[in-house]
Amino acid sequence: MALSGSTDFTLSRDEIAAAILRKMGGAKPLSAQISTKNQAAHVAQSVNLMLKAWQTEGIGLWKAAEITLVCDTTSTYYDIGPSSADHMSTTVVKTEIATAAAAAATTIVVDSYTGMTDGDVCGVELDDGTVQWTTLDTPASTSLTIDDALTDTVAVDNHVYTYTALPARPLAITEARLIRADGTETPMDVVTWDKYTEIADKSAGGNPTMACYRPVLTNGKLYVWPISDSVQKRIIFTARIPVDDLDAAANNADIPVEGLRALIWNGALEILPEYDVPPDRANRIERMAISTLMSLQAYDYEMGSVYFDVDNR
């Protein structure tokens, strides 16, 4: 028996739509607005709506991402999302200055350039305790060219941060950690909005110990307390990122292949009211949708040990 040696099976948007329509058994749409020409797009719209709704039910562990936020010393909160003016990413690289640089310099020498790419956003810690943000120009060695001249001197061991792109707006944040200048990590409490509002002095400075996330539209807001007292500190948090849209015919579904069966049966259930489906087939679609969704939910959880505190008194 010859095995394929391949494990990359997936389905495109239109292949998913075709599979859903097969489950409908060739049923005719009830609306004249649905034709054979726009049927795949119509089904894809319903699947997109369903995928987004699944996220509100907690499905989507595979979309958890670690985002690194570079702290400043003035902000009580940071915008987290695609149009944020704050600086965070899943691709943050941190290094340090190897050779002191003068104000007006357009070249800095760092300890390492591993992970940096042309056009990356680059933040350089200045001697005045702030970070100057610019962009990198084709990093090919530890001598980095930056697009904007330094506005202050830069000492040896000052921090340098780079990243490629901002993250999507998180749906939620499940944990957070403070990273100090020496690289040690300390867990932070992720609290509710009510708990955050109880803080009397929100402008206090120090080591951030508490985070509160509000997923407002466009860019979410991450509230941090106390305000960081150094730009050499970072916060890493685990965020649930939205699934990608199924926009084009060739787009693959942004779910594990193990969830495709549930996606198809539940997609059929989603469009069921818009098609003339016989009752017996409709009942089967509903049963299979429930069964496959339960299987997906059982698969989509984080494994870990469970500990019981037994009082032997």
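Above is the first protein from milestone M3; the second protein from the same milestone is given next.
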Amino acid sequence: MISEADTKAILEKAYIPEHIVPLMALLSKGEPFLIEDFLCLVGNDWLIVVGYPLETAFQESSLKRVVKASIKRFRPTFGWIMAPEEPAYLQSCCGERESDRYYVYDLNQTQPPKRLFRIAERAAEDLRVERHQELSKDHWTLIEEFIAIAAPKPRVEKLYLSLPKYVSLSPTAIILSAWTREQHLSAFYVIELAATRFASYLAGCYSRRVLVPHASDLLFYEMILLAKTESKNSINLGLGVNDGIRRFKEKWGGMPSIAYEYCEFRSKSRWVLNLLGSFAARG
């Protein structure tokens, strides 16, 4: 259990989206807690370990100690671990694995090419951007369209399906929506502002049926303005995901930053069974 004071302290130290306690708790429906310098979440039969220490430098030995303590305490059926490095002791027990990098836009040092601002200005001639905190049926239609066409990974699909409820409960989530003159939704971004030092891009969609050139560029520009208004130092743009998304983020000045290693494990994996067996032997 994490107190309001703990949550505030974590948000002040946060440097990746997974450190945003309200975001993780609402999306996972799990109970957040701290073990040493790591944020974790637990559900009925699962465990999430956010392996990015809040204050100290990352050490594989520290993460291993926290993973062991969490498994001993909660005995999960399955779990997920994310960290800046893939610990060697997890390599034999990971099911789904992923390697990527967070992309970050530095608001203090990055200046996108002027041509991108001109592109955004031209898009603004055909689109009107609104800031609000509720997703409508039009947003839901774009989400369904995105899932049908992109066929994202299950956890990404779960994120998008959770967005309507999440933004209705989060006082710090902002939706940037681009509307045509005919009041059709062309694209939208969901931005989370809870962390003290950075804004976090959570998700976005654009319509294939109401396709307006450079709608995404206009929303990126509006996201920069929003983050500056909120006195953030940077925008965490999420993971690279694929070449097209990486190129778009880099075009605006987003740079690959902290490494991301993801591992899903099951309690029947040899490493976890050996771990639990060692605990049992100790009584």
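Note on the second protein: Residues 4-99+260-281 form a domain with the Aminopeptidase fold (CATH 3.40.630).
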